[in-house]
Amino acid sequence: MIKNLVQQPLEEIIERVVVKSHNKIHVIPVEKIRYLEAQDDYVMIYTTEGKHLKQATMKYFEKHLDPDDFMR
């Protein structure tokens, strides 16, 4: 018996992260991200230039960052 395999659609890989902080908007290219740290429903994004707090989950970034460049 042959089963139909339903392929899950791939999530869109992001190229930048937008973070709002103190009435400023920071656009962070993914290549500048060094690592991420979970903080409840937020993620601290450490870059080559500093750190930024983003309201998102690690699961979101796990699905949207290139798995060849990032791992959990």
Describe what this molecule looks like in 3D.
It is a single chain. The protein is mainly beta. It is 10% helix and 42% strand. It is built from one helix and five strands; from the N terminus they run βββββα. The strands form two sheets. It has a three-stranded antiparallel sheet, with no helix packed on it. Strands 1-2 form a two-stranded antiparallel sheet. The longest helix is centred in the last third of the chain and has 7 residues, at 58-64. The protein starts with 15 loop residues before the first strand and ends in an 8-residue tail after the last helix. The relative contact order is 0.20. The model has no long low-confidence stretch (mean pLDDT 88).
Topology of this structure?
Elements: E1 16-21, E2 24-29, E3 33-39, E4 42-47, E5 50-54, H1 58-64
Antiparallel strand pairs: 1-2, 3-4, 4-5
Considering DSSP H and I runs of 4 or more, what fraction of the residues is helical? Answer: under 10%
Going by helix content, strand content and strand pairing, the class is: mainly beta
Report the average pLDDT across residues.
Answer: 88
Per DSSP, the total helix count is: 1
Keywords, please?
72 residues; mainly beta; 3-stranded antiparallel sheet; 1 helix
